Amino acid sequence: MARNRSLAEVNYKISKTYDLLQRTLTGLLERRTPARVLEVGFGEGRALLEFAWQFRSQPVAFFGVDKKQEPPVQCRDDLAKMALEFGVCLPDELGQLRLPHIDFYDATELRFPDEHFDLIYSAVTVRFIPDKARFLEEVCRVLRPGGVAYLHIGQKNWDYPYSQALPEIHLTPYNSRFVLKYGGELIPLPDYLQLFEGEVFRFEFINRPRCVLKVEKRRSGRLDLQLQWNDTYSMSMKALPYRHKSGKIQGGFRSVYDIPEENYRRLIGLGRIHPETLRKDSPQESPLI
Asked: What is the set of domains in the chain, with CATH numbers?
């Protein structure tokens, strides 16, 4: 995983554009100020610094959380050196840059108050987080009403249909890193999230065929996905394995959860799934090796 992606590269991972995050923040600032922005998985801080520099004249505070505390960035002061190294600003302009606040820990337990951020984003990192459901719940907790989150969970070939699980550990030929099941049935993630939409949250998968989740928080509240961690099927993607077209084994962690019977029945009642249409065959082109 590259830890020095530029802001343009992060934008492209999330949306196949080069300015989605800037446009989103500009829109948020038109409605209220000041604002707070969080990047999960900031790496060496390049994108976060470029973002802070572009909005240096605006009342915005930038924050970053990363699990790895290693050179060249081990504390906030190191970001000044990185800003110069990445060419974010010139030495005599460094005083204009408000350095982002950074910390190092597992983002499934975000150390921020409820409803603290206006914009949260993460590119690539989420695919490596084991407990993705808990992470999503935490993002929704710290997001302010009116705020937006963009979470890049994985690349293409993730959107498995309502189908019968494959035998043994594979479950599905789709290389999804966030898998839901009920008994021997696989429950599509987009359909399940629809159960939790309403006055508080709106969920949308953007930039298909990539797996990028956009979360909009409309009013105060928390998200409880009511999922049960499945330790048997949750594992490193390398243990399966799945491969890129180049033959390289794909990385990341496949997080598997069991949904409760009540929510399975709700999905049927709402017409999100139909047991009579349960798919029992695998697609002809399978990424499984």
From this structure: 7-277 (3.40.50.150)
SS3 assignment for the chain: CCCCCCHHHHHHHHHCCCCHHHHHHHHHHHHCCCEEEEEECCCCCHHHHHHHHHCCCCCEEEEEEECCCECCECCCCHHHHHHHHCCCCCHHHHHHCCCCEEEECCCCCCCCCCCCEEEEEECCHHHHCCCHHHHHHHHHHHEEEEEEEEEEEECCCCCCCCEECCCCCCCCCCCCCEEEEECCEEECHHHHHHHHCCCCEEEEEECCCCEEEEEEECCCCCCCCCCEECCCCCEEHHHCCEECCCCCECCCEEEEEECCHHHHHHHHHCCCCCHHHCECCCCCCCCEC
Q: What is the pLDDT of residues 105-145, one digit of tens each?
A: 999 999 999 999 999 999 999 999 999 999 999 999 999 99
Residue 243 has pLDDT above 80, yes or no: no
